[in-house]
Design a protein that fits this description.
heterodimer; A: alpha+beta; two-stranded antiparallel sheet; 5 strands; B: about 70 residues; mainly alpha; globular
Amino acid sequence: MNGFPAQGQADPQTWGQVYDGRSNPFNAMRNQQRISAIPGRVVQQEDMIRPNDVPMDGSVALFPLQDMSCIFGKAWNTNGQIITVRYVPEQQPQQAPQVDPFQVIDTRLTSIENLLASLIPQDDIQLESEKPKVTKNGGNKK
Amino acid sequence: MMPQINPMQLIINKLSQDPRIQQSPQMQQYLQVIQSGDSQRGEELARNICQTYGITPEEGVRQAKQIFGIF
């Protein structure tokens, strides 16, 4: 519920519809009467909308701002006042940049390697082949 | 003898026959208030309309008199 009263003669489904009556001249004549337009106009500011711009026929007049930042919907209520609903365009969510997961893993591994390298002195790092081998009788065999 | 003419009834009849009013739910509501004779509600409604149009109630009365030819 948007706070507007029920639509009277102006059915939103028929707003702005222009019928093509080329198939039958009688339809063309009949449909000419059914052409309807949305009441309202483009405005620069909301205070440019005058009460006379809002029809008292139960329909909602739409007033888009010139920069299309919002649309004001205005209608008379039964208390003699104009009620306003402001429609703002929905912002599309920003798409996250595509990231290669392998690249992320590689970057993180590199940073871990760099961190370890900075913490452990180079002399303490021994290769597996350089480690002393322990024999069964407990002695070191070099 | 001339029949008594009620000016209020004349105005209501004139308004009721207007197709714009017949097609407007808002106008129908306003007309109902006039017909009901609820002066408090009528005054509230009239003041709201004047406020919406940005005119004083006195100016509203002046314009209404002009429309209906009452001087």
